[in-house]
Amino acid sequence: MSDFYAANLVLIQSTFIGILLALSVQVPMRAGVFSFAGAGSYGIGAYVSAILVLKTGMPSLLAILISGIVAMVVGLLLGLLVAHLGGLYLAMATVSFDLIVSVLAINGGDLTGGVTGLFGVLSDVTIFHLIGLALLGIVGVALTERGRVGRRVDAVRDDPELAQSVGISVRRYRLAAFVVSGLLGSVAGSLNSLVRSTISPSDIGFSLIVLALTMIIVGGAQSWKGAVLGAVIFTWLPPLLAGFGQLQHVVYGVIVATAAIFVPGGLYGIYSEARYRRTRAKRKPPQGEAPAHEQALAISVPNGDAGRSA
Amino acid sequence: MSAAEATATRPVLEIRDLAVHFGGVKAVDRLSMRLDEGRIYGIIGPNGSGKSTLLGAVTRLTPLTSGEILFDGEPFHTVHASQIAAKRIARTFQTVRLLPDVSVRDNIQLGADAARGDVDERRGWWARNFGTHTSPAVASAIARTRLGGFEDYRPAEMSYGTQRRVEIARALALDPRLLLLDEPTAGMNQRERGEISTLLKELRDEGLTQLLVEHDVQMMVDTCDYVFAMNLGTVIAQGRPEDVVRDPQVQEAYLGKKFRHA
């Protein structure tokens, strides 16, 4: 075990960071907000923590907390600006936000270290901090999928107009998605620069957006379980694919494309669908109902006037 | 309605000189209505007569051009769409709108989640938001809409008429004072329509005010206490359902055309 741990320390660390990054994209996705701002928040967390620790000698956990607050405020402002946008437009706006963070990092002069970034960010972050914060993130997100809050998030995603009619402030939920995503992304980024003791613009660029999105597409956006699954897979897959040599990028691409096309709900989607089918097969239909027959009839009676004269 | 009757009951909803214009299109114009407590009101009218726009305005999804809406005597047209549930106004939609990936029970619970003064209100913040309990209001809404046995079903497994009943159950779980029903029996068979009509009348007898938009004239005559006929965005006739459907203006605007096609 300890041999395995020592040999794979970097991957083990990356797994917990990856989980938080994936959650930062999964949370807004589940609320129907196509925001990739989590990657930008990751950049904010990574740089703010690194600067605080490097320039002021601040304790790591305090630096993580402060960068988290900064990212939440930025997330809220971003949300106020773009939350009313839908679908692709929102996605593009948040990708732009991520790229703006990269540009700021590159042009930040001495503060951000420019293209080469910051080095020697010494901290006392251990694997236990990583595990603890990742668990905290998972538990927090899992709670938002339970009970009343879980139902309301479902409603905001599936039918905002219906959600309003049952007293849900859709706008508030969408803004909350931006703020929570900001916090999760920022903690992931902070941990990355504190564990690796370095951060550069190449760590937070477009490839980070692609990585986070890949984790969610393959894992599944409907639940934190999908995010965790995706994070584990895409942390450990690249080293495993190294055996393919030059072909590894092709294999990686095929896996992602296959998942996107054939498994739209992700791996977690397959699991939850199978579980649902099992419970459905077990139960008996209620008295007086012939679902299959009436189902066919229902399709032929849509919303219009046909067949409904007095 | 006589003066004595008018003072005996108080208006739950009052619409004064309402106008909703979309550019040059006057979807609703110079429309006034008064809904007294504990009665079933119906709105009939051909497609495009402004029925849905009116419901949109009352549920605050459609902005008013001018006019006033009063709920319980208080100005209501400044209230946000997400606050109407807190005022205990519940609605169903013209097309069935249920969450596809959750059970019937959870879909109905969504209505109970919005209810105030419910037993849930006394639970702790934590249990109320993250607990997986089902409110008593859900069980009673399921019983009233005869959905027993369907609790664990998802919407796509049920017939259209049954899905409609889930919508009504969700609205009832909100414990409404005013229930707005947009074509509640569309897609239902004759037996189901009869059941819904009976349910609505029971609810009326318990004091629930209802506003019903329907195409099914027989259902309206059987169910409503008072009917408004709309055409071109305004009320062209109102009164007892039997009288309104015999009104020549109404027959021409709505029934005549419909019966010719039938």
Can you walk me through this structure?
Chain A: It is found in: Cell membrane. Chain A: InterPro entries: ABC_transp_permease (IPR001851), LivM-like (IPR043428). Chain A: This is Branched-chain amino acid ABC transporter permease. Chain A: The chain crosses the membrane at residues 6-25, 32-54, 60-81, 88-106, 118-143, 175-192, 204-221, 228-244, 250-271. Chain A: It comes from Candidatus Phosphoribacter hodrii. The complex is a heterodimer of chains A (310) and B (262). Chain A has a domain at 2-217. In chain A, helix 2 (9-30) runs parallel beside helix 6, helix 10 (206-219) packs parallel to helix 13 and helix 11 (224-241) packs across helix 13 (266-282). Mean pLDDT of chain A is 89; it is low at 290-310. Chain A is globular. Chain A has 14 helices and 2 strands. The longest helix of chain A has 27 residues, at 170-196. Chain A is an all-alpha fold and 310 residues long. Chain A has a two-stranded antiparallel ribbon. Chain A is 73% helix and 1% strand. Chain B is α/β, with parallel strands linked by helices and 262 residues long. Chain B has 2 domains: 9-87 and 177-262, Rossmann fold (3-Layer(aba) Sandwich); 97-176, no CATH class. In chain B, the strands form 2 sheets. Chain B has a 6-stranded mixed β-sheet, sandwiched between helices. Chain B has a 4-stranded antiparallel β-sheet with strand order 2-1-4-5, covered by helices on one side. In chain B, a hairpin with a 2-residue loop joins strand 9 and strand 10 (234-239). The radius of gyration of chain B is 19 Å and the shape is globular. Chain B starts with a helix and ends with a helix. In chain B, 48% of the residues are buried. Chains A and B meet through helix 7, helix 8, helix 13 and helix 14 of A and helix 3, helix 4, helix 6 and helix 8 of B.
